């Protein structure tokens, strides 16, 4: 009997890394579809003639509806489960990515970016909930770091592929080709993924070392808690603050770095790819490394509170040099500084996402991630307007980089006040 149980656990153990690979490739596609507009912005600006403020508002359209998508999919994931909800999200955002090829005005781009935002809002609530279902607590930050590194890989492939496709076949073809990749993932997802079957062995594996195990077991048949319940919890607000203050910085890197290289460093479409590839290659190390740090500390017997916060503090401090990037005269020194900051953000993000499953039972994880993600998107909307206005009036990026440098330490301090011990939130069945 023990041999059979051990065999089931080993099978589940191997399968959970297959699940992680599926999440990784979905996130690669998510970020390729998201980043294509920023990469093609110099070309599209010439074709369509939008101003800095108009481009900022196209970014805002995505950010605003991404917030809506996160909030809605946070609930959908908890209601329908990860298999169906993830597929629905991928379908919506892939269709939206392809539809970019059919528009030719500022309003048209704003509309398809809004639809893209709604669909892409399903990625992280579904991925974080899937990770909570399949991975023990001591591995969740590492697993999150691995699949979240798909954002960086997507950001590496995007500048390597998209400008070349656009130069050879036109920007409309670039949107169609990249958008169609999502349908390939959909086929693989339906063929390979299954929900956890609820067996005792799989449940024990996923809850290994998890303080919330008893609560989950006691409320096994409880429904997902409503937003009114979650919004009253200090633990929810800790996650909200972390996302609201730091997500906009990542979006600044994602949407505005190509324009920064073009305007401040004089790089054209044919040469802009290599610096971005280097930046996001560095970022990949940070994403996995940030998750590895807290997982390693947990394996050495550190508390969840100490392990997560130590890793997040290291990342918050590593961002600080970005405040001085505008003073770097050498292109590759500037690229290294930006790469370090972006890597630190992803290490921070891997641990921040994991705090949702640290502090909440699995039945609430999707909704909490959705609420926090919505807050991050609202922050992105506000910061995008600030960015557009600052650049329209001054043409200088240094103020924006200085804001990005300070955001993480401020977020860390507030999160610590709201959740000093990162104890699991108390939710009634």
What does this 3D model show about the protein?
- Residues 19-423 form the Major facilitator superfamily (MFS) profile domain.
- This is Major facilitator superfamily MFS_1.
- It is a single chain.
- 81% of the residues lie in helices and 0% in strands.
- The chain has 429 residues and is mainly alpha-helical.
- The chain has one domain (14-194, 214-418): Up-down Bundle (Growth Hormone, Chain: A), CATH 1.20.1250.
- Helix 1 runs antiparallel to helix 5 and helix 2 runs parallel beside helix 4 (106-120).
- The longest helix is centred in the first third of the chain and has 47 residues, at 2-48.
- The radius of gyration is 21 Å and the shape is globular.
């Amino acid at each position: 009997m023990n041999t059979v149980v051990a065999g089931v656990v080993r099978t589940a153990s191997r399968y959970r890394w297959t699940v992680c690979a599926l999440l990784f490739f979905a996130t690669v596609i998510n970020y390729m579809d998201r980043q294509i507009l920023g990469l093609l912005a110099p070309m599209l600006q010439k074709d369509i003639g939008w101003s800095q403020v108009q481009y900022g508002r196209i970014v805002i359209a995505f950010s605003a509806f991404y917030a809506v998508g996160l909030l809605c999919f946070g609930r959908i994931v908890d209601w329908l489960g990860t298999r169906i909800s993830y597929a629905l999200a991928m379908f919506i955002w892939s269709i939206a990515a392809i539809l970019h090829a059919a528009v030719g005005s500022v309003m048209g781009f704003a509309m398809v970016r809004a639809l893209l935002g709604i669909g892409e809002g399903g990625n992280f609530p579904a991925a974080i909930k899937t990770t909570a279902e399949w991975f023990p607590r001591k591995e969740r930050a590492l697993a999150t770091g691995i699949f979240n590194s798909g954002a960086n890989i997507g950001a590496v492939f995007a500048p390597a592929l998209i400008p070349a496709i656009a130069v050879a076949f036109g920007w409309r073809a670039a949107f169609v080709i990249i958008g169609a990749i999502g349908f390939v993932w959909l086929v693989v997802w339906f063929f390979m993924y299954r929900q956890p079957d609820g067996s005792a062995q799989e449940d024990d594996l996923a809850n290994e070392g998890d303080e919330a195990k008893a609560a989950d077991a006691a409320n096994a048949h409880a429904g997902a808690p409503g937003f009114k319940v979650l919004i009253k919890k200090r633990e929810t607000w800790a996650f909200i603050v972390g996302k609201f203050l730091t997500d906009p910085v990542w979006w600044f890197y994602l949407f505005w770095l190509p324009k920064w290289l073009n305007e401040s460093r004089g790089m054209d479409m044919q040469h802009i790819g290599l610096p971005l590839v280097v930046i996001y290659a560095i970022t990949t190390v940070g994403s996995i490394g940030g998750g590895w740090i807290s997982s390693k500390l947990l394996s050495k017997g550190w508390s969840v509170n100490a392990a997560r916060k130590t890793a997040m503090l290291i990342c918050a401090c590593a961002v600080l040099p970005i405040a001085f990037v505008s003073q770097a005269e050498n292109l590759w020194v500037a690229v290294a500084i930006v790469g370090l900051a972006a890597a630190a953000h992803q290490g921070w993000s891997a641990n921040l996402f994991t705090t949702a499953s640290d502090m909440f039972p699995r039945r609430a994880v999707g909704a909490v991630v959705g609420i926090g993600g919505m807050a991050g998107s609202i922050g992105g909307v506000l910061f995008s307007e600030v960015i557009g206005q600052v650049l329209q009036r001054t043409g200088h990026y240094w103020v924006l980089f200085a804001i990005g440098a300070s955001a993480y330490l401020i977020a860390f301090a507030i999160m610590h006040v709201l959740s000093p011990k990162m104890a699991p939130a108390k939710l009634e069945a």
